[in-house]
Automatic annotation (TrEMBL):
Pfam families in UniProt: DUF998 (PF06197)
Origin species: Polymorphospora lycopeni
Keyword terms of this UniProt record: Membrane, Transmembrane, Transmembrane helix
Record protein name field: DUF998 domain-containing protein
Transmembrane segments: 45-66, 71-90, 120-139, 146-163, 175-199
Keyword DNA damage among UniProt keywords: no
InterPro entries named in the record: DUF998
Length: 200
């Protein structure tokens, strides 16, 4: 059951931010980061998404620690899940024109809450490719190892590209972030599912 919880948490996170992002007035998924969905009148949806999905992934990760192929992999996945929860507890500041009335760019000064959100986000985007890299050496079966290794490289590069896009206030910031999130969370959901079905 714990592995199914992890799979559901990873899949739910992507589903919720995609649907909420495309249906929310004044929010541009191509430009705005996923975290901006935690702002505004419907912000509680993404806040809950961070907390519920992160908690479910942490539960699944503990299953990897005690029942999976690698204790280290499970620990890093648990760190990822807890950082996702923290990303929901601490929201980013309004910026990039969202919510309406927010500055178009990024302010020079940030609130403590925003800085904590940034720290949590850094852990999220560094721990996931690290987990994939560990999986490349510890998961059973050549296909899983190859896919995990390739994903680790892609995620590390994608995180760097997202950082550059953030600094440049790219109009495609949200699109670049989603190009990192969707395959990363998809790998998590697939791995948890495989573990639930007996991968060991």
């Amino acid at each position: 059951m714990v592995f199914w919880a992890g799979a559901a948490g990873a899949a739910l996170f992507v589903l919720v931010f995609l649907v909420d992002g495309w249906s929310r007035p004044n929010y541009a998924p191509v430009r705005h980061p996923v975290s901006a969905l935690a702002l505004g009148g419907r912000g509680w949806i993404q806040t809950a998404n961070f907390v519920v999905s992160g908690s479910a992934i942490t539960v699944g990760a503990l299953g990897v620690v005690f029942q999976g192929p690698s204790i280290l992999l499970g620990v890093v996945m648990a760190v990822f899940g807890l950082a996702l929860v923290a990303s929901g507890v601490f929201r980013m500041d309004p910026m990039l024109g969202y919510p309406p009335g927010a500055p178009d760019g990024t302010p020079r000064e940030h609130s403590t809450q925003h800085r904590l959100h940034d720290h949590a986000g850094a852990v999220v985007f560094l721990s996931l490719p690290l987990a994939a890299a560990i999986g490349a050496f510890t998961l059973p079966g050549t296909p899983w190892r190859i896919v995990s290794g390739c994903l680790a490289v892609a995620l590390f590069l994608g995180f760097g590209r997202f950082g550059s896009a953030w600094e440049a206030v790219s109009p495609r910031l949200g699109l670049i972030q989603r190009a990192v999130i969707i395959p990363g969370w998809g790998w998590l959901a697939a791995l948890f599912t495989a573990l639930a079905l007996g991968l060991n």
